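Protein modeling request. Please complete all fields; requests missing the sequence field cannot be processed.
Requester role: graduate student
Desired output: 3D structure, token encoding
Chains: 1
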Amino acid sequence: MLIEVDLHLHTTFSDGRLTPTKLVELCADRGLRVISISDHDSTEGLAEALEAAGRFPQLTVIPGIELSTDVPGSEIHVLGYFVDYESPVFQNTLTRFREGRQERARKMVEKLGDMGVNVSWERVQELSGGGAIGRPHVAQAMVEAGYIEFPRDAFDKYIGRNGPAYVERVKLTPADAVRVLADNGALPVMAHPTYSESKSGRDEAGSLTDTLQELKEAGLVGMEVYYGDYTPEQVDRLAGLAADFGLVPCGGSDYHASGNPDEPEPGTVGPPMETVEALKYRWKQSAAIS
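Delivered output (290 residues):
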């Protein structure tokens, strides 16, 4: 299948390593026609991305975001598409989320230090480039300091959910995240619902059908199906679930330019163009209702 759509991409304004401009240029060079910048708890890179896309008439950028939420023993991420990123109410909410992420990362650095893994908090802040600080910045600092070879090793050995330096964050439930996005006028989509080999520490959401039912009632519009390194069997299973629940089958590479050797890149995985048309239709419907 020709890949023309990637609805899951990260920039330096969260835990990606390409600026919005560089990421847009890469996507245009790869022949993509529709992308979404979906940084963690941040929309600060969207204006730059939209401006950069103006140089590529064939490329459309959907303003997006990715919110992280907690469930017992795991976590669920919720993407939002067609975000009203200029909403003061929404930005105040995101500020609270980012402050929680920063405090969590700082405590992880402290725990690593107690273990003899000495990572500079100042360097973690520098790696974030002023954007939302997350565990990947801690992981990158550990790579630079020579404690691990690849960023994913940090999750496997130290800062994954069961790791010795893991710290819980401020609680946000998946249903709360869906409602936050719906109140903003955005379309909530469940991210990477099942296990991924290339994303260390990423487990399958427990009782996926129950979770989808709960989130659908809260306002969920779609779920990722064509994602990262999912196998054909995973894609088929998730496509069936999406159809059963009346959800738009979304997806993308979840590209961070992380430095991990097997990271899927833009242009290698994504949903068909019909997904974009379905999202646009749902967005216009929700705007008409509100």
